UniProtKB/TrEMBL annotation:
Membrane topology: Single-pass membrane protein
GO cellular component: plasma membrane
Record flagged with keyword Transport: no
Species in which this protein is naturally found: Desulfovibrio subterraneus
Name the UniProt record assigns to this protein: Membrane protein
Subcellular location: Cell membrane
One Pfam entry name: OmpA
Domain of life, per lineage: Bacteria
Database matches in PANTHER family: LIPOPROTEIN YIAD-RELATED, STATOR ELEMENT OF FLAGELLAR MOTOR COMPLEX
Main location: membrane
Family: Belongs to the MotB family.
Amino acid sequence: MARRKKKKAGESGPAWLVTFSDMMTLMLTFFVLLVSMAVIDERRKLTVLQSISGQFGEGLGSFNPATVNNQARIVEPGVMDFDTDSLEPLKDMLWDDQRGDLNFQENQFVQILSISDEVLFRPGSVELSSGGMRLVDRMLPWFLRMPHPLLLAGHTAGLREEMGENYKALPAGTERQLSPSWEMSFLRVMNLYRYLTSRGMPPERLSVEGFGSYRPRWTEKTPEGRKRNRRVDIVLDKRNKEWIDKIDMLREKARERQGEFNYKDFRFRLGLPGEGQSGAGE
């Protein structure tokens, strides 16, 4: 009877592969240990949070609430919870206004009260009118009790529409070089800002932006559309309060600590266990 041939054992991988795997495992363990020992730099977190909040318009950066492109997002249907931190009571003013010079829009987080420039300012001027001051005084009690920041955003129509016959007296190319429509929108909201702060509004709860004629909400091709684009938007974003609270918390923690070493945004405590506890009560 023929003997069975023994099967040859399968060939193993190269010997260096085992050593390489061990080395990679040790390196992974070492870096996990570094991360577990590190203290996250609070200043770095503060910078990142401020950058994110600025990009998304939540308190510190530019916010664009009323452009043609994002209008559907801002005024999408939603239920706004009625509370004291709301512009909702100001809607009563709209019911008394028959000319349509006030406009109110809202969604779950954002409320926008738009006021025509003819209501707030003198004709062709950046100064508040007496009627505009009276209207602001009526709204001021709601502004004062809101913990959320407010954005004052100024908008104008084209320069020809704003200046009327005086437009012809401008030097050629003035609108392209100096952008007077942007300057006019900014000066108007600055005067509104000064009036509000003079009446007791905390300045840290207000921010100001001027968009000129570059962020129209309605068409510029009709007189009615251009008239409605000349406005001031008072924007309440309820998401702002949460971001500002987080930034304030991080700002309190963002201080230099003795006995620590910073390497590529990782902070390591240099000391023996229990060291520094004796001075904790000082």
